[in-house]
Amino acid sequence: MKSCKSNNVDSGLESDMQCKSGTGCIMKCSSERMESAAKRRLAANARERRRMQGLNTAFDRLRKVVPQWGQDKKLSKYETLQMALSYIMALTRILAEAERYSTERDWINLHCEHFHQESYHTYMGQKMTIDSDPYAQRIFSYQPEHFQIAN
DNA sequence: TAGGCCATCTGGTCCT
DNA sequence: AGGACCAGATGGCCTA
Fold first, then answer.
1. How distant is C1' of B10 from CA of A33, in Å?
2. Residue A32: closest CA among A54, A55, A16
3. Bases in strand C with any atom closer than 7 Å to a protein CB
4. Where is the chain membrane-spanning (predicted)?
5. What DSSP line would sit under chain A, residue for residue?
6. pLDDT tens digit string along A107-133?
7. pLDDT tens across A31-84, in order?
């Protein structure tokens, strides 16, 4: 006759003795096993919930640093990832372009005529001005390819 | 009301 | 054995 001990730490001496007695063992063992399985399931559910909440927190943080291009509606998870991808690619392109010139001033002078001040977007509640941050203006006047699906 | 988005539950798989 | 991660199922909420 199998003891319940291996399956249930909480069962203790009493259940171990009952199992050895035979008759009620199968029912008690199975009900205890079901009970502990249910407990484990609930714990797993809670962990999964916490994990998904962590994931959603990360998505919220990502939404805050990704430009929304005037959209007032909250980006979906899929849209957030697509926008982040476009944004990173745009920044990478701008960075690569900037590195081709020896000084920041050369690069700014070269591109000054392309700045469109009226198209600047506010970013995280801060309006950029041409004097304060020309790099940021260049970045935010750049319109990335709209949601190209990356395969 | 259909479709999109999301949260949650659940069982399976992999890793420690 | 238990935790992390994943994908499918399901039901709720919202919007056009």
1. 18
2. A16
3. 1-7
4. none
5. ---STTT-TTSHHHHHHHHHH-TTHHHHHHHHHHHHHHHHHHHHHHHHHHHHHHHHHHHHHHHHHS--TT--SPPPHHHHHHHHHHHHHHHHHHHHHHHTSSSHHHHHHHHGGG--GGG---BTTB---TTT-HHHHHHHT----TTPPP-
6. 677 666 554 443 334 333 333 332 333
7. 777 777 788 888 888 889 888 988 988 998 999 899 876 667 889 899 999 899
Look at the domain A26-102 and name its fold.
Answer: MYOD Basic-Helix-Loop-Helix Domain, subunit B (4.10.280)
Q: What per-residue string of b and e applies to A43-76 under the rule 16 or more CB within 10 Å gives b?
A: eeeeeeeeeeeeeeeebeebbeebbbeeeeeebe
For B4, nearest residue by CA–C1' is A76
Asked if A80 and A66 count as a contact pair (C-beta separation under 8 A), the reply is yes
CA of A77, C1' of B1: distance in angstroms? 25
Q: What residue spans define the domains of chain A? A: 26-102
Contacts of A103 (CB under 8 A, 6+ apart): none
